[in-house]
Amino acid sequence: MLNKVFINISKLYSLAGGVRIHDALNDCAIYENAYMRVCDGKIVDVGYMCDLKIVDEVVIDLHNQIVIPGIVDAHSHLVFGGSRVNEYAMKIQGASYMDIYNAGGGIHSTVKATREASFEELYEQAKKHIYEMVACGVTTLEVKSGYGLNKETELKQLRVVKQLDKDLPIDIVSTFMPAHALPKGYTSYVYLDEMKDTVLPVVVEEQLAEYMDCFLEKGVFDCDESYHILKAGKEAGLKIKIHIDEIEDIGGTDVACALGATSVEHCMVTNGSSMDKLKDKGIVAVILPATSFNLCKEYANVSLMKEKGLIIALSNDFNPGSCPCTDSLWMARIASRGLRLTPNEVLSMMTINSAKAIDREDIIGSLECNKQADFVVMNCSSFDEVIANMMKNPITAVYKKGENILC
Ligand code: NIG
Ligand code: FE
């Protein structure tokens, strides 16, 4: 197969040089007037137009558009049935996330709808949402289960994820999240042990997940319960992610540190001493600002996280309740305003740093030799323009392993 060379890139945001912390977040390693050469789905050369020598290859002229790495969305609850639109008016009039949850709405109502939906219905709805994400530049997506809360439906969700990964051109990373809520009629340890003893072995046997996650939160699962289920996941060979500090800081960081988690996610109310512990262990903080926006809640203290040198990633948290948003560009705009981040900081956090949140920083998240050719072409003058202007989506092509997957 002939190589492809993409020419006349006005700004190529390469993000070369690895994961970014502190001031390096502002450095996107930009090449102006660049080209990029791709062979067998991988980047083999990046350089300046003035140095380009075209050989026997396919030339694709990008006509002075910009190029960024494919967006890595490291946190989603993609596979679900039903809708929670009916909760919106309640929420905007003051009902809290936990009020709705405790009244049997929230996650519980999605669990009911997900149990009732067939494999095909879940698959089709999730596929539609993936293509909405691709249209906003996503080329790799993490997906969690957790709307089943019983053996049959947790496995149904994870099998949908596996099938989507096989069929669709983006890469999907799967996370088993049985402790997302306590189903009615159970006490916590009875439920957790049922998941551990009857579902986890199937997840491992069928290779349905790479990570295990848990909603560690006051009124959901406490530290001991979370440790109990996550430790079983770890012993079975899964890596660990944890939802912590979305509403209250009840010590989730200590559980993450004890288990050597890859990431902690949400971190809306994480305090300074917890941040120090995350920094020491190299655990990525995955921040989800579109959730803060949608819940009308506070934003994570990213300025302090930056100051302390944490690895910070930004992701979207697509789900039917706390963040019904498939648009990563809107998430990026919210992130910049809500967390006071520059466009370059936002871009670092949603590419190379979010690749680190799924342990893939060696293969995706930046545009440099030997990395996968996952990139997004935008018809605008800079990434600053995408963030500063809240206008039309400027994406004209989304390449996954060197092929345009934008429909
Ligand atoms: O990441 N916080 C827990 N899980 C999801 C919300 C799920 C839901 O509301 O359905 C989240 O925000
Ligand atoms: Fe979540």
Features:
407 residues; alpha/beta; Urease, subunit C, domain 1; TIM Barrel; 2 domains; 8-stranded parallel β-sheet; 7-stranded mixed β-sheet; 15 strands; 22% strand; binds N-(iminomethyl)-L-glutamic acid; binds fe (iii) ion
Give a brief outline of the structure.
By secondary structure, this protein is an alpha/beta fold.
Please tell me about this protein's structure:
There is one protein chain. By secondary structure, this protein is an alpha/beta fold. It folds into two domains: 4-69 and 367-404, Urease, subunit C, domain 1, CATH 2.30.40.10; 72-356, Metal-dependent hydrolases (TIM Barrel), CATH 3.20.20.140. 36% of the residues lie in helices and 22% in strands. It has 15 helices and 15 strands. The protein has helices at 88-92, 97-102, 107-116, 119-134, 151-167, 188-205, 223-235, 252-259, 272-281, 289-295, 302-308, 328-339, 343-350, 352-356, 383-388, and strands spanning 4-13, 30-39, 42-48, 58-69, 71-73, 138-144, 171-179, 211-214, 239-244, 263-266, 284-287, 312-314, 375-378, 395-400, 403-404. The strands form two sheets. It has an eight-stranded parallel β-sheet with strand order 5-6-7-8-9-10-11-12. The two termini are 23 Å apart. The relative contact order is 0.17. It binds N-(iminomethyl)-L-glutamic acid and fe (iii) ion.
